[in-house]
Design a protein that fits this description.
The structure is a single chain. With 290 residues, the chain is an alpha/beta fold. It has 3 domains: 118 residues, Periplasmic binding protein-like II (D-Maltodextrin-Binding Protein, domain 2, 3-Layer(aba) Sandwich); 90 residues, Periplasmic binding protein-like II (D-Maltodextrin-Binding Protein, domain 2); 67 residues, Alpha-Beta Plaits. The protein is 28% helix and 31% strand. The protein contains 9 helices and 15 strands. The protein is globular, with a radius of gyration of 24 Å.
């Protein structure tokens, strides 16, 4: 026990790079991990344990890692008593039913699952889905490479995670319908860590993560506008706080700056122009402290 906060990340997979990128945006200096199992940040008392994603909930529950970043799908499947501290806004994927792309094998709707054999690494979630929808199917639990089950004749269908869809395509499988949506979450064994020093570190890290996530979903909008259209422009801007208005050399014009939700920009741009705005700039924000 060295007092470092320990975070578990997926060793190799969809969440690895994005989790590391987020920690680096939090100001942590982390060397390239390559094949190492444990890496310590150079400028923050944080140890990163690289684990199989399916094992992360258990390691967090047992306290081997204090916190972990893992797919919600894995957390729910494992049913351990761990808590989600933060949704991470990346690693979005769905758990879907997929079928072999050969004539006569199509699965169009839930009732088509009746009397089928379905291979999955998510038996708990699938069983619950089948029960809730009063469907009768046989579940074959596989810990990996679920996508090859139909071609091996092990199962009729699969129920697996899809993100880009590449894995399905490469295995000549077609998506039928989804049963669950997921994204990466930050989990811990309880909402506060027992060790006071570690809990302080966790709160510091959470503060930084939340600042990065807030910044990601916001943009800094700048424009020039005639003074007399300021009211109209202020009404258009869905500002988090009231916009900053600055004088310009031309007395009839002002500069207007505001933080806006990133996804609103294209909805308001035409209205801003009609109201007389010019020289509109949209800039990324690196951090947003609350
Ligand atoms: C899931 C799933 C596929 C892949 C699908 O694996 O089992 O292998 O992601 O992604 P794609 O649609 O972008 O091709 P996961 O990341 O959960 O890793 P694991 O199977 O190693 O646990
Ligand atoms: Zn996995």
């Amino acid at each position: 026990m060295n007092g470092n906060l320990k975070i578990a990340l997926q060793k190799k997979g969809r969440l690895t790079d994005k989790s590391l990128e987020l920690l680096r945006l939090c100001g942590l200096d982390i060397e390239n991990y390559s094949e190492r199992l444990v890496v310590t940040a150079r400028n923050f008392p944080l140890e990163i344990l690289f684990l199989r994603d399916d094992d992360i909930p258990e390691y967090v529950k047992d306290g081997v890692a204090d916190i972990g970043i893992v797919g919600e799908n894995v957390v729910i499947e494992k049913q351990f008593p761990i808590v989600t501290l933060q949704k991470m806004g990346f690693g979005r994927c769905s758990l879907v039913i997929a079928y072999p792309d050969i004539p006569g094998k199509a699965v169009a709707s839930p009732v088509d699952l009746n009397n089928k054999t379905i291979a999955t690494s998510y038996p708990v979630i699938l069983k619950k889905y089948l029960e809730e929808n009063k469907l009768e199917a046989k579940i074959i639990e596989l810990s990996g490479s679920v996508e090859i089950a139909p071609s091996l004749g092990v199962a009729d269908l699969i129920c697996d995670i899809v993100s880009t869809g590449n894995t399905l395509m490469m295995n000549k499988l077609k998506k039928s319908f989804k049963i669950f949506d997921s994204e990466a979450v930050l989990v811990s064994a309880s909402s506060a860590l027992k060790d006071k020093k570690k809990n302080d570190l966790l709160n510091e890290l959470l503060k930084r993560i939340r600042s990065v996530l807030r910044a990601r979903s916001s943009k800094y909008l700048m424009m020039n506008a005639p003074k007399n259209s300021l009211d109209a422009i202020t009404k258009i801007i869905p500002a988090l706080k009231s916009p900053t208005v600055l004088p310009l050399a031309d007395e009839n014009l002002v500069a207007v700056h505001a933080v806006i939700p990133a996804d609103q920009f294209w909805n308001i741009i035409d209205d801003l122009k009609s109201a007389g705005a010019s020289g509109i700039l949209l800039l990324p924000i690196e951090n947003m402290i609350e």
